Inverse folding.
């Protein structure tokens, strides 16, 4: 995955700089998210990876699949990516763009993986604590993983807080083994 990130970073940075200059951060966010979803579709991947698919034809097909949801600048990005055999980078470009956008807006996305559905009060408490700790606005995304048995794992940028029962058991077993 790090190879994809390395290859996608210059594209994400270039799109971000252009979007920031033109005040189109939200528009580009939507476009990149949409293009990333199209680029991960199994049928689209097969089609674009077909040995006889020419680069320009691949770009044209991809643009047609997006059904007039892309402006001229987004279409040019697709063409550039196709010329360099990089359309598969769109999901990673979208993710990196979101990180740059969040940084510019002074916010960060935090992912909470919980063993059970969180109440609104729990979500608010986690958000408030993270905002205080990180000094930034926090956008919370919550998912459920019953394999955790209990507790939660919180990821925000480089910060990882493992409060799951599995995490605690691993720490205990490591401590006992030493």
């Amino acid at each position: 995955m790090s190879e994809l990130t390395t290859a996608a970073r210059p594209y994400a940075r270039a799109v971000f700089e252009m979007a920031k200059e033109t005040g189109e951060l939200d528009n580009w966010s939507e476009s990149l998210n949409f293009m990333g979803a199209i680029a991960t579709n199994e049928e689209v991947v097969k089609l674009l990876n077909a040995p006889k698919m020419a680069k320009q034809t691949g770009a044209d097909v991809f643009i047609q699949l997006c059904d007039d949801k892309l402006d001229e600048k987004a279409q040019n990005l697709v063409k550039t990516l196709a010329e360099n055999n990089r359309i598969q980078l769109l999901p990673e470009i979208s993710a990196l763009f979101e990180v740059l956008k969040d940084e510019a807006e002074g916010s960060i996305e935090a992912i909470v993986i919980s063993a059970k559905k969180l109440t609104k009060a729990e979500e608010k408490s986690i958000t408030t604590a993270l905002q205080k700790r990180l000094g930034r606005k926090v956008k919370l995304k919550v998912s459920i993983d019953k394999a955790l048995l209990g507790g939660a794992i919180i990821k925000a940028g480089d910060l990882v807080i493992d409060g799951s029962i599995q995490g605690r058991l691993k720490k205990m077993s490591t401590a006992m083994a030493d």
